[in-house]
Recover the amino acids of this structure.
């Protein structure tokens, strides 16, 4: 089954695309996009892969499912179009970066520059129906993205995995702890962040120190 995805990822994931669960998932997604308003736009479903070459990947940030409002989801977890007001979780991410790195507060919510630097901004579920969060849960995306995480863990070395919130932390079992850095904290959403589970985690400086230690280029977060 030929999927329109960046070539380095197609080579790594080609076996997934031939599996029955993925055929069923593809059928479901195509039908949803034909009959419902869904996000992100079809050409951006695999943006997390298309903008982050497998060979250059060095950080994985895990989200749950895409934003479900108009003009928000762009295929990268936590990211929105630069013309859209930044959602609360994204604002808290930027606040922590500013605190952690003692730098100016980032305002551009489009995180494609992160992706281009080797950060995979991966949602567990890659599509959603308009105004119905979780509407494409348990249709096959989770099996696919869990396998993606495992493949990254197996085939790469010295990747930084950022697991924010209870949902993301459940993915820790898919990652080989002996050759990767796993950073865990509460979710950046106001509900979690305002209770003290997010601010002060210093994930961004910890990530860069680890990358430099392993002879990799630090991330420009702002």
């Amino acid at each position: 089954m030929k999927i329109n995805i960046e070539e380095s990822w197609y080579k790594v994931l080609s076996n997934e695309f031939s599996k029955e669960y993925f055929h069923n998932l593809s059928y479901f997604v195509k039908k949803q996009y034909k009959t419902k308003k869904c996000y992100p736009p079809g050409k951006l479903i695999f943006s997390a892969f298309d903008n982050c070459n497998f060979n250059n990947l060095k950080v994985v940030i895990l989200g749950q499912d895409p934003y479900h409002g108009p003009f928000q989801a762009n295929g990268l977890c936590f990211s929105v179009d630069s013309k859209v007001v930044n959602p609360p979780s994204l604002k808290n991410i930027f606040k922590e970066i500013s605190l952690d790195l003692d730098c100016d507060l980032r305002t551009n919510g489009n995180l494609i520059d992160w992706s281009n630097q080797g950060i995979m901004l991966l949602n567990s579920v890659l599509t959603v129906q308009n105004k119905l969060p979780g509407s494409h849960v348990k249709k096959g995306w989770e099996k696919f993205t869990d396998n993606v995480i495992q493949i990254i863990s197996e085939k790469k070395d010295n990747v930084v995995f950022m697991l924010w919130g209870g949902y993301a932390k459940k993915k820790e079992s898919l990652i080989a702890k002996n050759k990767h850095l796993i950073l865990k904290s509460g979710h950046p959403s106001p509900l979690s962040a305002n209770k003290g589970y997010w601010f002060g985690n210093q994930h961004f400086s910890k990530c860069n120190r680890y990358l430099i230690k392993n002879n990799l280029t630090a991330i420009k977060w702002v």
Q: What stands out?
A: The first helix runs from residue 7 to 17. The domain at 7-213 is CATH 3.40.470.10 (Uracil-DNA Glycosylase, subunit E).
